[in-house]
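User: Sequence in, structure out. Go.
Assistant: Echoing your sequence, followed by the structure tokens.
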Amino acid sequence: MILTIVFVIYIAVIFALGICSYFYTKNMHDYMLGGRSLSGPIAALGAGASDMSSWLLLALPGAVMLHGLNQIWLPIGLALGAYLNWQIVAKRLRVYTEVAKDSITIPSYFENRFHDTTGMLRLLTALVILIFFTFYTASGFVAGGLLFSSTFHVGYTTGLVLTAAIILIYTCIGGFLAISWIDFFQGCLMFIALLVVPITVLHHLGSLQGSLSTITHQSSVYLNAFKGTSFIGVISLFAWGLGYFGQPHILVRFMATKSAKTIPQAQFICMTWMCLALLGAVFTGLLGIAFFAPNGLSNPETVFLVLAESLFNPWIAGLLLAAVLSATMSTASAQLLASSSAVAEDFYHKFIRPDAKARELLWVSRLIVLVIAVIAVLLSLNPKSSILALVGYAWAGLGASFGPIIVLSLFWKRMNLTGAFLGIIIGALTVIIWPHFKSYGGIFALYELLPGFVFACIGIYVGSMLTKAPSLKLLSQHREVILVEGSKTHA
């Protein structure tokens, strides 16, 4: 009963934030980008919360509990990738999207960056976003279904529908501002949960030395970061970091900041939050081995949920479990919004109703959110779906398709429209095709993001060099970005 009350209060707060942001959402620019008004802390925790998703509280602790410290290479790779994304991409993307006709979505940025008058690049980008984000959103719904079924003992499908309904309502009402404000709140909650749970588990077990002894007694493999791994395996886990360069729901936070001058502050906050949160997730899984020894858990991905219910009174447990719902909602809502913008702004407005008014586009976007959510729910109906597998596939698809074009479009003036087309197509196809060859082993065992990213870079370079150089107008735009970035950085 108490858990239910806590969840109801939490959801009421979420809806209140959504309703408040509704009154600030007057057009597509507000709905998709919040009027470029995000402060450093809001952008930082928004990027972190929408990035980490439910895998941070469920999948990562579950993987560590199942396999041990040989999973540590994944969070290390992610932390490195996130740092480079903030360091290399954030500031210039904020400036470039404003100079390039005030682009409010990644597809519109690509179109304006390369002066594509056909609209085909925007359409291709929107299609890739739609495909992979639907799988990504499905992973969040799986996590919500597990949360509600484990906590309230309702059916998995019922929990799935409840999760989808909550996310749908506040995403449709408030758009980007609602998501950003709620993500700040949820990011704080996730952070506290990932510090409190492992500390409490350690206190319950008595000492770190005793816990490590129990873990070693279960299997000597658990505390060996290299045991059971291979060079290909470690490189694959590190390669997850490359995905950051191509995630639209993270990149859009850079685009929405007040100015390039807020980026350093946001970077510091986000990286501090991320490193401590990842550490907390790893220790939750590791200490879970000792806590549940010798029998373990039937589903290791529920270790955080079971620990929260076992060690805390219902009021605190309710808040901690709400953190899982926070993680799920933060990412799924950001992905739904990015997907709806891909359809409404980059397809409907571009090809079907070019003269559509702002209000019409707003309601089309909300309708698309509903349609995508329904498809994601259908993909999530199997309760045995692996959260990490769904996230991994979508992360690779977006990272390989868009990561190379984002980085090279920001820094290589010779890149042209042909190179952009080839980069997206080659990256996406590699991620789709590569897993079918994994049974052959060897290099085919690599996480598909890495070959997809490399092949896309090669495609961009070859395509750009073998075709006509960018126009003087494009080169002038590139120079303007460099000048504007320099002036805003040193202002």
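User: And one key feature?
Assistant: The chain has one domain: 2-387.
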